[in-house]
Specification:
Order of helices and strands: HHHHH
CATH topology: Four Helix Bundle (Hemerythrin (Met), subunit A)
Distance between the termini: 20 Å
Mean pLDDT: 94
Strand content: under 5%
Radius of gyration: 14 Å
CATH architecture: Up-down Bundle
Low-confidence stretches: none
CATH class: Mainly Alpha
Helix content: over 70%
Structural class: mainly alpha
Length: 118
């Protein structure tokens, strides 16, 4: 089985390049989001018996489930990464740069670790 943590490591590696280009910043945003999302969804399924459809609606359902369980900080950081990923993936006119992506990933890092222990 693929380890979603590799997505997180890849996103950080992309940003460590001396001159990460716009494409790398967008990819890093997406990989960081999916690492956080998949780790969280998998933990909720395995340890809290939450049923997901493994479809598009899972994204909002994971965030709702976290808030229902009073894990608001984790939900908020996951939501921040989701919004950044959507911006990076769908809005080609938007500026997505290393400072923006690094800030969101840095803010999410501790909550990402906490999600691994849900």
């Amino acid at each position: 089985m693929f380890d979603p943590d590799l997505f997180w490591q890849y996103s950080e590696a992309l940003l460590k390049d001396e001159y990460p280009d716009k494409c790398r910043c967008r990819i890093a945003a997406g990989r960081a989001y999916y690492a956080f999302f998949l780790i969280t969804r998998n933990r909720l399924e395995a340890f809290h018996k939450v049923k997901f459809r493994h479809a598009g609606e899972d994204h909002s359902m994971v965030i709702r489930e976290l808030r229902h369980r009073n894990r608001h900080a984790i939900a908020d950081r996951l939501d921040d990464l989701l919004r950044l990923r959507e911006l990076a993936d769908y809005d080609m006119a938007a500026q997505v740069d290393i400072n923006q992506v690094s800030f969101v990933i840095d803010e999410a890092r501790n909550h990402y670790s906490a999600a691994k222990t849900l």
